[in-house]
From TrEMBL:
Pfam families: adh_short (PF00106). One of its GO terms (cellular component) is membrane. This is NAD(P)-binding protein. Putative oxidoreductase. InterPro entries: NAD(P)-bd_dom_sf, Sc_DH/Rdtase_CS, SDR_fam. Belongs to the short-chain dehydrogenases/reductases (SDR) family. Keywords: NADP, Oxidoreductase. One of its GO terms (molecular function) is oxidoreductase activity. Gene3D superfamilies: NAD(P)-binding Rossmann-like Domain (3.40.50.720). PANTHER family: DEHYDROGENASE/REDUCTASE SDR FAMILY MEMBER 7B, DEHYDROGENASE_REDUCTASE SDR FAMILY MEMBER 7B. PROSITE patterns: ADH_SHORT (PS00061).
């Protein structure tokens, strides 16, 4: 019989008694879980603390900020991708085009660039096509070198003319370097001894020249882009955003990558500082580990690939590009791909540097002679 005698109250009362019967079991389970957590915490305090911090950060990231695409509709978004003729930049250009944004693809190889522009044009969704007043310039291929000031200023002028401004700047252009620095200078080390004993002037100049090329492609280019486009972004977009494709190597050192890592680190810190100088712009830095593709062909020191074949073992470009768009939309700051490996490597280097150094040496098949 129900509490008040009304139809359905029997069920309610039955339901309550079932809950009361279950209550001790629920409490037992909760107590068991808490005890297990306590025991695990006692045994692995560092691991659990790191997991809890990452978990909380992940949850906060998800709930904290309004998505940028709610303020700036994708179909209104004007995106400039520097380094879009191949690789990650090309995949990012595809993603934006498929969401109906206006996309300007930039690189030095004209033919590849035109091909990417054609691919992008074929991906524009039906609902977006015809929605922009400047439809003819929805997808813009522009041949330019991001290390060349005149090219970048001309690019800005063209964007002002075609689109009247810019919302999103993506910097994916960069160059690799693959050799131990002393090897670049013509000095080899065998059994702890150097051959020849010292680097000659010519050798030192070789190392300087490779370092300067790495600096140009990984630091000066991003610097020129920042100076050229930050005022345009700030003054013409309701939600300006900059995405820098950095690298895990920018925060976790690796053998044979001294020139690459140091120059990627320089641009990362440059942009991190700019983010404080320009708080109205949302800066996102993506730090992927190895990605599939031909990036290593751009090596400024002509070295060979030592690690496992990136095209077999690397991250998929499309997956990296999707994560980049999500990060920009959520206005995330530093994004490691994969998250766990990247964050553990980053933090691990400061806590247990020698372990991370050993892992890095193994990854790049490097043994100090
Ligand atoms: N691949 C990886 O394993 C990996 C891992 C972590 C981070 N990253 C970073 O991801 C970014 C993209 O790499 P990716 O794998 O996509 O390599 P990619 O296929 O070689 O793409 C590099 C792009 O940059 C452009 N570029 C290079 N120098 C340029 C210049 N001076 N001016 C204009 N464009 C220039 C290239 O175009 P043009 O040659 O036509 O100019 C190309 O479109 C790089 O910044 C790299 O550091 C790569």
């Amino acid at each position: 019989m129900g509490i008040s005698g009304l139809p359905g109250t029997t069920y309610v009362a039955g339901h309550h008694s079932a809950v009361f019967e279950l209550y001790p079991k629920i409490m037992d389970t909760v107590t068991g879980i808490l005890e297990l957590a306590k025991a695990t915490m006692e045994r692995h305090p560092v691991t659990i603390s790191i997991a809890v911090i990452f978990g909380l950060q992940h949850i906060l990231r998800r709930v904290r900020k309004t998505r940028r695409s709610r303020i700036l509709l994708r179909t209104r978004e004007r995106v400039l991708v520097i380094g879009a003729s191949s690789g990650i930049g090309r995949a990012i250009a595809h993603e934006y085009a498929a969401k109906g944004s206006r996309v300007c693809v930039v690189g030095r190889r004209e033919q590849q660039l035109q091909q990417v522009a054609d691919e992008c044009a074929s991906m524009v969704p039906v609902y977006a096509a015809g929605s922009a007043p400047d439809e003819a310039s929805r997808i813009l291929p522009i041949k330019a070198d991001f290390c060349n000031v005149d090219d970048m200023v001309a690019l800005r002028e063209q964007l002002e003319k075609e689109w009247g401004g810019l919302d999103t700047l993506v910097i994916s252009a960069g160059v690799s370097a693959l050799r131990p620095l002393l090897e670049v200078a013509g000095v080899e080390r065998r059994d702890g001894a150097f051959y020849p004993l010292h680097a000659g002037s010519e050798g030192v100049r070789c190392a300087v020249s490779a370092g300067t090329a790495a600096m140009q492609g990984n630091y000066v280019g991003p610097l020129i882009c920042a100076v050229t486009f930050i005022p345009l972004l700030s003054s013409t977009s309701p939600a300006p955003s900059i995405l820098l494709i950095s690298s895990l190597a920018a925060v976790v050192p690796a053998p044979t990558r001294s020139l690459y890592a140091s120059t990627k680190g320089a641009s990362l810190l440059l942009y991190q500082s700019l983010a404080i100088e320009h708080p109205s712009i949302a800066f996102t830095y993506v730090l992927p580990s190895t990605v599939e593709g031909d990036f290593r062909a751009s090596a400024v020191d002509g070295g060979h690939v030592r690690e496992a074949d990136p095209s077999k073992h690397g991250l998929r470009r499309d997956a990296v590009a999707k994560r980049c768009l999500e990060a920009v939309d959520r206005r995330e700051k530093a994004v490691f791909i994969p998250t766990f490996t990247g964050r553990v490597g980053h933090l691990g280097y400061w806590l247990f540097p020698s372990i991370i150094e050993r892992i890095a040496a193994r990854k790049y098949n490097y043994t100090a002679q």
